[in-house]
Amino acid sequence: MRVVIAEDDALLREGLALLLGGEGIEVVAAVANPVEFMAAVEEHLPDVAVVDVRMPPTHTDEGIKAAVAARRLHPSMTVLVLSAYVEQAFATELLAGGAAGVGYLLKERVGRVAEFLDVLHRVAKGGVAIDPEVVAQLFTRRIDPLERLTGREREVLGFMAEGLGNTAIAERMHVTEGAVHKHIRSIFGKLDLSPSDQVDRRVAAVLRYLEG
């Protein structure tokens, strides 16, 4: 796996590079701003980009804009965005730009090394991983569009948004995989997601939830 890191905090940037290097992951570039990030993506064509949401010059949304732009240029590149806060608009913007192989993680999660690496590998394989805290806050804010779902189905959809597969969801909920499959089938039905749709229905369900 070849990774580009874009993070203006030098300590976190170098820490991430050391962490990934220690895990046998090749960090081909570690940069501090969006311009350097785009140049690094063009030069190295990495498998994964780890990008901070807020970077110079204004420290607002430069990172997310750069990530979306890089994905348009290189759709095969996966992106893991790091943020200090839950920023709903940025999460939905990134996902709407191409949902496969994207992740949105709070920076506090980086300190939990095993969890961070698990998310990174999940995203690198084309999965979608949303921080549990982001999922929890978005459920609180945007429950109306999903009012047809039962509480159990909302719980399953929350785990789906975190990028968990059926087996992991079953373990979290202490139920069988068959029960999880039934919940997911019901979610698809209630959200009008047909098997004939030319989309990944799991991703589409998560997007419906995020976008309301």
Walk me through the structure.
The protein has 212 residues and is an alpha/beta fold. It folds into two domains: 2-132, Response regulator (Rossmann fold), CATH 3.40.50.2300; 142-211, Arc Repressor Mutant, subunit A (Orthogonal Bundle), CATH 1.10.10.10. The chain contains ten helices and six strands, in the order E-H-E-H-E-H-E-H-E-H-E-H-H-H-H-H. It has a six-stranded parallel beta sheet, with helices on both faces. The longest helix has 14 residues, at 177-190. It starts with a strand and ends with a helix. The model has no long low-confidence stretch (mean pLDDT 85).
Number of domains: 2
Q: Would you give the CATH topology of the largest domain?
A: Rossmann fold
Kindly report the name of the CATH homologous superfamily of the largest domain.
Response regulator
Whole-number average pLDDT?
A: 85
Based on CA inertia axes, which overall geometry fits? globular
Q: Tell me the strand order in the biggest sheet.
A: 2-1-3-4-5-6
Helix content: 40-55%
* CATH architecture level-2 label of the largest domain: 3-Layer(aba) Sandwich
- Based on CA atoms alone, the radius of gyration comes out at 17 Å
Instruction: Give the SSE string.
Output: EHEHEHEHEHEHHHHH
Give the amount of beta strand, in percent: 5-15%
Task: Specify the CATH class of the largest domain.
Answer: Alpha Beta
Largest sheet: 6 strands, parallel
Distance between the termini: 34 Å
Instruction: Figure out the total of helices.
Output: 10
Give the low-pLDDT segments: none
Class inferred from helices and paired strands? alpha/beta
Number of strands: 6
